[in-house]
């Protein structure tokens, strides 16, 4: 019969799982493979660090109550008042581990991770648990949290009042929550097959950077939302909806919640560009997490806080503060935490409580950046405790040695790798997995005991559930390349997010991105190896074959004996140059149903092309309408602080945003500010030469008139029937009267409506009532009668569209009011057409969603009559169904009120699940991606022409005749009848036909009065 020793390794026996047992006695590992197949060096390297795998812990000596009493006062008085200090012993350890880490600098991080994935002793734990026990969100985070929960008994055996509350900071995607649930169910009962309610109640709250908040930098957050979207109401994103824990207001708001027995904090900041300074980079975040936890924990509660190395004074001070406020303090590196990284977890148990004065003082220093060159506490204050500092050095030494050994093991295994080593490592990984299962008592729980019972969420990369990332092409991929490559990419990203390319700042500069993370750049000079033109993207990267960034192809050739300048093979007859690898990050992936535009860098010698030009007539199928919907009410309306820049979206990948904005801003500076944009566009795009297209009539405002004509040609918006009734319509335009002109021409003046336009000099007549554009949004009831057609234009000017990173903010109120009037004033089967700009935010998508549910057909369309270098597009809604929009008008009234009176920003107006309805989200994502790439290419074309002064050779005249065929030339038909057929006219009146207007009118031969047929009232005025 099999048994397990203290560390969970099987001793003898062959039962249960079918794996052979291992002998593990006092750290002496005895392999089950044939040791004779391995050299001594191979065997030693494979087993290095194995004996400590499940016991990487350090327990700090306990502070007595007497020691703690005066410390609180000192912390309050001394917090951030003295210069930063260093402990020589810790700095020596830092230098030692950095020397070891620097050996990885020249390695492509993706290739290196592929290697360490194979050598990781616990690398198969998550996969095995997922497969064997069907665990919810079984990721690396799940297995780490489970280790800590069991090892430190973080869930009490006896729950007071049968109630347990946990709060999970920096939690996305949610694996710590699911691990807590799994352990709770195993320990305290479950719903089970009989669905008998457990005898306890668990409440949890998750907090993370909001993956749906458009102001959050995608590089600073986890975009895996598969669990979040299913449990959205249990997540707290703060008063500003960002989820930024470095915002004091968000922390105060969280403190208003119920106290918790357990707080976990798994926050980190991307330090791949500067791994040696990871500890400093994350110090502000860890401080904020610890302060947040102490403000929400109940007495006796526990804290789990991710940390890294423990060398810097910020870490030493923070650990000292925690030691003062908890009965027990430990640092642990779970066996399932990758051995070669610096990740550790602080486990603090038995919270003593904290004074409100000290808590308030600690909170006042929560920010993305600490005060410069200032230590959290004086070194003298910490030295007063005779044990703590020596314990810190001892702790740092242990974890540094473990990390060094792990890195060296991986480096040596890379050189030693062969089939025997691979087999031995594979067997080791398999046995460690079994040891984990045994030691931590992993069992399957009933499906009813999961948090998400209606959907299978196993945490694997293949199962993303209803994640918003699916429509964008999947989750973000890890940045590859050497350290030098990663630093360059990170620098460019930071410059883009901050919007400031001045690198003349001091060497170590922390920048607040305003997205919940601090980033560090400029620590080390990076040689200029690539062009820094703002327009040049890095979507297509040729991996250099230099020693600084050796390509995969070159590495393979070197292994085959390649020498520079010589061919492969004994006779040098083989390849001289490697087959290089191109990284295509711009390819559309899962969820994209439209071929991706190749928006990679263009050759400076050739003009960039815009796909589908000059007519942009690609077939864009509308989304199929779903008739089911979630309840929509004022509780769905989410208000937060105004977003500074829209740099992430449910519908667009962040790299596309970066290219678009950078190109827009260059064009704005070079062409818009100098009033050259229009002249360049006129030579390159049909949209700015519409007055040259041959048409049956000459419009005063051909640009907007023909925009509507092209839509009419495609969608048959205006009636062409022979009925003699007037078309009731409404036009709202911030540009000119072009829409009115086209409607009047096409309908032969057989219409009746209102037009809200910029000009105040227009005179109303019997068929059209003119008003100022602004009156539509300020008058209580601008439209009192039902209409069959509403055409509007609230798009941004080129000046605004090309310099703002939040174009939609300016049109929110107008779009809401227009949508509300469309739903209220349209007749059944009526049409609503609106020209807008960007469609990136949850707000705009929410308005479109309400229209999507209210019309038979809805489509986003951009024809050749709109400038491809601008974000303008038409929203075409056809076939209004009033019965399906019940409650929407009142809802939009509430949204309008919030936009009018609230100083903050309305961010969301329908439940997030509505926006993630698969058909709807995919359509918006496909449309947004296509138009973003189209606009980027068009802007690059403008820029190329400007830089190369090639404008004189460009001409679009050859396309004018063909363009005319894409416009509607068909006018409404007129019924020709005999003048007096069926009519008995009063004395003196005759009926006549106007050749110029193509309309019938009545004329009084005695008085000279004339009346159009549609205004005829039997001869009486």
UniProtKB/TrEMBL annotation:
Gene Ontology terms describing biological process: 7-methylguanosine mRNA capping; methylation; mRNA modification
Endpoints of the signal sequence: none
MF terms in GO: methyltransferase cap1 activity; methyltransferase cap2 activity; nucleic acid binding
Catalytic activity: a 5'-end (N(7)-methyl 5'-triphosphoguanosine)-(2'-O-methyl-ribonucleoside)-(ribonucleotide) in mRNA + S-adenosyl-L-methionine = a 5'-end (N(7)-methyl 5'-triphosphoguanosine)-(2'-O-methyl-ribonucleoside)-(2'-O-methyl-ribonucleotide) in mRNA + S-adenosyl-L-homocysteine + H(+); a 5'-end (N(7)-methyl 5'-triphosphoguanosine)-ribonucleoside in mRNA + S-adenosyl-L-methionine = a 5'-end (N(7)-methyl 5'-triphosphoguanosine)-(2'-O-methyl-ribonucleoside) in mRNA + S-adenosyl-L-homocysteine + H(+)
GO terms for cellular component: cytoplasm; nucleus
Basic and acidic residues bias spans: 493-510
Domain of life, source organism: Eukaryota
Entry-linked InterPro entries: Adrift-typ_MeTrfase (IPR025807), G_patch_dom (IPR000467), mRNA_Cap_2O-Ribose_MeTrfase (IPR050851), RNA_MeTrfase_FtsJ_dom (IPR002877), SAM-dependent_MTases_sf (IPR029063), WW_dom (IPR001202), WW_dom_sf (IPR036020)
Domain WW residues, every copy: 983-1017
UniProt domain Adrift-type SAM-dependent 2'-O-MTase: residue ranges: 136-353
Protein name per the record: Cap-specific mRNA (nucleoside-2'-O-)-methyltransferase 1
Species in which this protein is naturally found: Didymodactylos carnosus
């Amino acid at each position: 019969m099999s048994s397990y020793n203290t560390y969970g390794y099987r001793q003898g026996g062959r039962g249960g799982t079918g794996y052979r047992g291992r002998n593990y006695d006092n750290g002496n590992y005895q392999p089950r493979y044939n040791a004779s197949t391995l050299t001594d060096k191979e065997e030693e390297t494979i087993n290095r660090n194995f004996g400590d795998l499940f016991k990487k812990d350090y327990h700090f000596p306990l502070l007595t109550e007497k020691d703690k009493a005066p410390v609180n006062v000192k912390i309050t008085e001394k917090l951030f008042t003295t210069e930063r200090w260093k402990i020589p012993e810790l700095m020596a350890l830092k230098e030692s581990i950095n020397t070891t880490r620097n050996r990885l600098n020249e390695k492509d991080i993706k290739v290196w991770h592929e290697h360490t994935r194979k050598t990781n002793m616990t690398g198969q734990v998550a996969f095995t648990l997922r497969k064997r026990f069907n665990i919810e969100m079984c990721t690396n985070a799940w297995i780490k949290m489970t280790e800590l929960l069991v090892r430190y008994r973080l869930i009490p055996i006896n729950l007071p009042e049968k109630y347990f509350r946990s709060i999970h900071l920096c939690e996305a995607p949610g694996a710590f929550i699911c691990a807590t649930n799994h352990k709770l169910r195993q320990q305290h009962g479950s719903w089970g097959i009989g669905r008998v309610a457990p005898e306890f109640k668990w409440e949890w709250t998750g907090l993370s950077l909001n993956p749906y908040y458009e102001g959050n930098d995608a590089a600073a957050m986890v975009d895996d939302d598969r669990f979040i979207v299913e449990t959205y109401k249990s997540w707290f994103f703060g008063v500003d909806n960002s989820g930024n824990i470095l915002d004091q207001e968000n922390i105060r708001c969280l403190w208003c919640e119920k106290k918790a027995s357990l707080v976990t904090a798994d926050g980190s900041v991307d330090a791949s560009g500067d791994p040696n300074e990871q500890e400093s980079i994350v110090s502000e975040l860890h401080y904020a997490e610890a302060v947040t936890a102490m403000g929400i924990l109940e007495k006796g509660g526990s804290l789990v806080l991710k940390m890294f190395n423990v060398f810097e004074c910020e870490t030493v001070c923070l650990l000292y503060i925690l030691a003062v406020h908890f009965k027990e303090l430990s640092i642990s590196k779970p066996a399932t935490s990758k051995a070669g990284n610096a990740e550790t977890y602080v486990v603090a148990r038995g919270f003593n409580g904290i004074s409100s004065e000290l808590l308030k003082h600690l909170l006042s220093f929560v920010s993305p950046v600490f005060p410069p060159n200032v230590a959290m506490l004086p070194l003298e204050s910490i030295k007063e405790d005779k044990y703590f500092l020596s314990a810190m050095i001892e702790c740092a030494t242990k974890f540094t040695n473990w990390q060094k050994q792990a890195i060296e093991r991986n480096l040596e295994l890379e050189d030693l790798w062969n089939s025997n080593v691979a087999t031995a490592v594979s067997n080791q990984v398999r046995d460690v997995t079994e040891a984990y299962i045994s030691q931590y008592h992993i069992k399957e729980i009933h499906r009813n005991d999961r948090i998400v019972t209606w959907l299978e969420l196993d945490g694997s990369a293949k199962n993303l559930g209803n994640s918003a990332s699916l429509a964008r092409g999947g989750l973000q991929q890890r940045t590859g390349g050497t350290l030098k490559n990663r630093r360059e990419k990170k620098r460019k990203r930071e410059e883009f997010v901050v919007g400031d390319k001045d690198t003349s700042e001091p060497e170590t500069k922390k920048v607040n991105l305003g997205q919940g993370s601090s980033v560090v750049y400029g620590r080390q000079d990076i040689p200029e190896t690539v062009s820094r033109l703002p327009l040049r993207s890095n979507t297509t990267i040729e991996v250099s074959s230099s020693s600084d960034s050796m390509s995969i192809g070159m590495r393979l050739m070197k292994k085959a004996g390649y020498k520079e300048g010589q061919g492969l093979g004994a006779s040098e007859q083989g390849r001289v140059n490697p087959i290089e690898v191109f990284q295509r990050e711009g390819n559309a992936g899962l969820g994209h149903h439209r071929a991706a535009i190749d928006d990679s860098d263009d050759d400076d010698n050739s003009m960039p092309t815009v796909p589908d030009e000059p007519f942009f007539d690609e077939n864009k199928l509308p989304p199929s309408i779903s008739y089911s919907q979630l309840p929509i009410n004022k509780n769905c309306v989410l208000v937060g602080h105004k977003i500074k820049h829209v740099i992430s979206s449910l519908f667009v990948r962040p790299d596309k945003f970066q290219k678009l904005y950078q190109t827009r801003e260059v064009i704005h500076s070079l062409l818009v500010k100098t009033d050259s944009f229009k002249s360049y566009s006129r030579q390159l795009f049909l949209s700015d030469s519409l007055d040259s297209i041959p048409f049956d009539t000459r419009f005063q405002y051909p640009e907007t008139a023909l925009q509507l004509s092209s839509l009419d040609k495609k969608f048959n918006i205006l009636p062409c029937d022979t009925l003699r009734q007037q078309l009731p319509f409404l036009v709202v335009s911030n540009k000119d009267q072009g829409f009115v002109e086209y409607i009047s021409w096409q309908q032969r003046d057989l219409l009746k409506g209102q037009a809200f336009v910029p000009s105040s000099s227009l005179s109303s007549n019997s068929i059209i009532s003119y008003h100022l554009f602004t009156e539509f949004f300020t008058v209580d009831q601008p439209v009192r009668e039902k209409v069959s057609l509403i055409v509007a234009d609230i798009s941004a000017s080129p000046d605004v569209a090309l310099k703002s990173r939040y174009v939609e903010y300016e049109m929110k109120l107008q779009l809401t009011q227009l949508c509300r009037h469309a739903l209220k004033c349209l007749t059944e089967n009526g049409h609503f057409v609106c020209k807008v700009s960007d469609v990136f935010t949850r707000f705009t998508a929410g308005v479109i969603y309400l229209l999507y549910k209210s019309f038979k057909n809805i489509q986003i369309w951009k024809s050749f009559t709109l400038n491809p270098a601008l974000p303008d597009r038409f929203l075409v809604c056809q076939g209004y169904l009033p019965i399906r929009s019940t409650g929407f008008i009142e809802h939009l009234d509430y949204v309008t009120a919030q936009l009018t009176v609230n100083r903050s920003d309305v961010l969301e107006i329908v439940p997030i699940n509505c926006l993630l309805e698969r058909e709807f989200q995919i359509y918006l994502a496909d449309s947004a991606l296509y138009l973003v790439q189209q606009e980027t290419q068009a802007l690059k074309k403008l820029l190329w022409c400007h830089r190369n002064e090639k404008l004189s050779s460009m001409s679009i005249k050859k396309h004018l005749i063909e363009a005319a065929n894409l416009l509607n030339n068909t006018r409404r038909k007129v019924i020709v009848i005999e003048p007096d057929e069926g009519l008995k006219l009063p004395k003196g009146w005759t009926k006549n036909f106007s050749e110029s207007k193509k309309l019938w009118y009545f004329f009084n031969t005695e008085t000279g009065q004339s009346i159009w047929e549609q205004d005829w009232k039997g001869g009486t005025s």
